[in-house]
């Protein structure tokens, strides 16, 4: 696992097609803008389990 210190406005590229931009960074909250192709699935950790419970 890679752990980074991030400031507002900084960007991380993952491969050639995925870009994470840190829009707002507070003490315990981070807002991230994700730019990725439509065929790339983006799920929050635990989101898949919640969707199964709702069904």
Overall pLDDT metric: 86
Query: Percent of residues in helical segments?
Result: 10-25%
| Domains, number | 1
The arrangement of helices and strands along the chain is: EEEH
Terminal CA distance reads 32 Å
Strand content: 25-35%
Physical arrangement of strands within the biggest beta sheet: 1-2-3
Enumerate the spans where pLDDT stays under 50 for 5 or more consecutive residues: none
Shape: globular
Q: Round the Cα radius of gyration to an integer and report it.
A: 14 Å
- How many helical elements? 1
Sheet with most strands: 3 strands, antiparallel
Q: State the secondary-structure class.
A: alpha+beta
Q: How many runs of DSSP E, i.e. beta strands?
A: 3
Keywords: Bacterial flagellum biogenesis, Cytoplasm, Repressor, RNA-binding, Translation regulation
Protein name: Carbon storage regulator
Pfam families: CsrA
């Amino acid at each position: 696992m890679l752990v980074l210190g991030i400031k507002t406005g900084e960007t991380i590229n993952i491969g050639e097609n995925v870009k994470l931009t840190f829009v707002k960074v507070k003490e315990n909250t981070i807002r991230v803008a994700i730019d990725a192709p439509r065929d790339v699935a983006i799920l929050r950790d635990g989101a898949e389990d919640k969707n199964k419970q709702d069904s």
